[in-house]
Each structure stands twice: as structure tokens, then as C-alpha cells.
Amino acid sequence: MADRDLQMSPFEVHVKEGDARGDGDRTASLPDECAALRAENEFLKKKLHLVGSVTRHDVLNQMTAIVGYNELLEMIVTDEKQKSYIEREKFAVDKIRRLFQFAKDYQNLAVEPPRWQGLDNVIHRAMEIFDNPAIQVTVSIGRIAVFADSFLDKAIFQFLDNAARYGGPVTEVRITFQDRGTHAEVTIEDNGCGIPAADKDRIFERGYGKGTGWGLFLAREILAMTSISVTESGEPGKGARFVITLPKGTYREGGEAPPLTVR
Question: Hey, CA dihedral for 113, 115, 121, 124, is it positive or negative?
Fold first, then answer.
């Protein structure tokens, strides 16, 4: 087999073999073509995963070196203007690091099928990642399970992180659950400065915001995997209020395991 053939995807090899017989894909059966397309899809997924993981690994290693040199410079530099440049570099490096984390999370989104998850366990995992002693998180949800993507805890974390980073003097976040009959709502609200009316829809757009602009976009994408939506309805100046709407069939009382069927 030629070097070019080694770089070809399974679908390209399938088509080339058909051409060599003089019939191309005209005589290929539908099951054969579907199998070739599935193989092509898996081939491309593996390539994307490999490129993404290797790139992240190598770039993050170089960023670690930059952080180390910045720390050395901070101990040497005394000029205030030069110190301000170092602070800007640190901010840029942190932003790059968070962008790479987003890329990793987004790449892994929907890799596993959605599943039933205890909402209390999901929030607990999100709070462990959040780990901010300056903000008290109070939870009042009862025993509820939600059918969602396996990254649901990362979505909840994004709302907590958004409050800490951009909510101003936030000291408390409250998470509640309410069954409305036709649907249910999980509300995450804080006592910070709130979100301006003009920004309420735009905050979920990719790239919008003061930070990386990916956090709330990622949260919305994770929720949308099982038709769960989110809106912001807080009053500007009195705190942000994110309302996660759960359609019928995506929530139930009880834990993560499905209820037993008695026959």
C-alpha cells in the first residue's frame, strides 16, 4: 500500500477500491456504504480528538514555563510600569488556559449519552469545583433527578463562576427547584450587581462578555442536549437570576436510578 493510502480515511479507501474494480460506488450496497460512512465518522472523530489533546498538552506545557518565568520576573522587577505589563501577561495566560479548558469540555460534550442524575449530587460536584469560601451557596431542591448530559455539573459550575467573576460584591447564591406542572424550574440567583437589560440575551452568545465569553455559552449548550433551556430574569442592580427550564420528561422525584417496574 502506498504512503498516500496510509493517510486515507476508511471511506476514501472504500471508494478507491470500488474505482479500481471499474464500478466505483455504483454497485456498492446501501449497508456497505453506511458501514463505510460510519467508519469515516469514527476516523475523523479520532483525528480531531488526537489533534485537540496533543495541541492542548503541548501548549499548556509551554504556558507553564511562561508562568514560571513571570514569577521570577515579579521578584526581580521593581519598576511599576513593568510590573503592570507582567500583570497583563498573567491575565492573558489565564484567559488562554480557560479557553483551552473550554475547548476540552466542548470536544467531550455529548460523547456519552444523556442519563438520569440526582440534582443534589450534580450541584455538590459543581460546588466542589467552585470552592469559593467568600460566597455562601444555599440549596433547596428536594430529591430530584434530571435527565441531562453527563456535563450537567459543569453547566451549574458556570453559573456559580459567573457570579463570582462578574457579579460584583456577591456573598450569596441560592439554588431552588419548583415544579410548575407543565414544566419545572431550577433557579440560580445571587445578590450581586445583576445583568443590564440589554445584555440578558447576549450573555449566552459565544465570545460575548468580559472574560473568555465561552462559559455561559457552554452551559446553554450542555443543557440544550436534552431540550433544557435557560434564561436570565434578574433585576439589574439586585442580582442575577438564571432560570433553567426542564420540560416534562426530563425530571422526576427520586434519585439517579430509574424506578423499579413491578410486574
Answer: positive
Nearest CA to 153 among 256, 52, 55?
Answer: 256
Secondary structure (3-state) at 150:
coil
Q: Would you state the cell numbers that stand for residue 81, as one nine-digit string?
A: 510600569
* Cβ atoms of 212 and 226 closer than 8 Å: no
The model carries a pTM of 0.63
The rounded distance, in Å, linking the Cα atoms of 149 and 223 is: 7
Placement of cell 493510502 in the chain = 5
Instruction: Summarize pLDDT for 61-89 with one digit per residue, the tens.
Output: 788 888 888 888 888 988 898 889 888 88
Closest by Cα among 262, 261, 255 to 115:
255
* pLDDT value of residue 259: 42
The answer to whether the beta carbons of residues 109 and 221 sit under 8 Å apart is yes
* pLDDT tens-digit readout, 220-229: 989 999 999 9
